[in-house]
Amino acid sequence: MMNVVIDTNVIVSGFFWSGPPKAIIEKIEERLFKLFVTLEIIDEYRDLFYRFEIKTGIPTISMLNFILANSQSLFGPD
After folding, report:
1. Domain regions of the chain by residue span
2. Model pLDDT for residues 29-64, shown as the tens digit of each residue
3. Statement: the pTM of the whole predicted model exceeds 0.85
4. How far apart are CA 72 and CA 37, in angstroms?
5. What are the distances in angstroms from CA 32 to CA 22, 28, 56, 59, 77?
6. How far apart are CA 45 and CA 54, in angstroms?
7. CA torsion sign, 56 to 59 to 65 to 70?
8. In the structure, what pLDDT confidence band is assigned to residue 8 with cuts at 50, 70 and 90?
9. Residues β-bridged to residue 71
10. Partners of 36 in the beta sheet?
């Protein structure tokens, strides 16, 4: 299993288009990649999904839920 941190542009591309970004999302779903996130990364994903949903009208809650369900948090004391 490979540990990964994913840029927000790759996340959005992976959910809506084919190609390497989609393959990354599929590998996370298949548990071949282990996604790591911090609170800051989650906030960035959430903000991006919100803007994308406002712009396109496409609901994005399932994308955020996918990220939360398939990631390992790196939350810890400061």
Report:
1. 2-73
2. 999 999 999 999 999 999 988 998 999 888 888 888
3. no
4. 6
5. 14, 6, 31, 27, 28
6. 14
7. negative
8. confident
9. 35
10. 72
Quote the CA–CA distance of 8 and 1 in Å, as a whole number: 21
Q: Is 6 helix (H, G, I), strand (E, B) or coil?
A: coil
Q: Determine the pLDDT at residue 44.
A: 92
**Which of 4, 68, 63, 64 is CA-nearest to residue 36?**
4
Burial of 64 (C-beta count, 10 Å sphere; 0-12/13-18/19+): middle
Average pLDDT, the chain: 90
The answer to whether the CB of 11 falls within 8 A of the CB of 41 is: no
Q: How far apart are CA 19 and CA 40, in angstroms?
A: 27
The Cα-based distances of 22 to 6, 35, 68 in angstroms read 12, 14, 17
Give me the helices (H) in 1-78, please: 8-16, 20-29, 39-56, 61-69
Retrieve residue 11's tokens: 């996340």
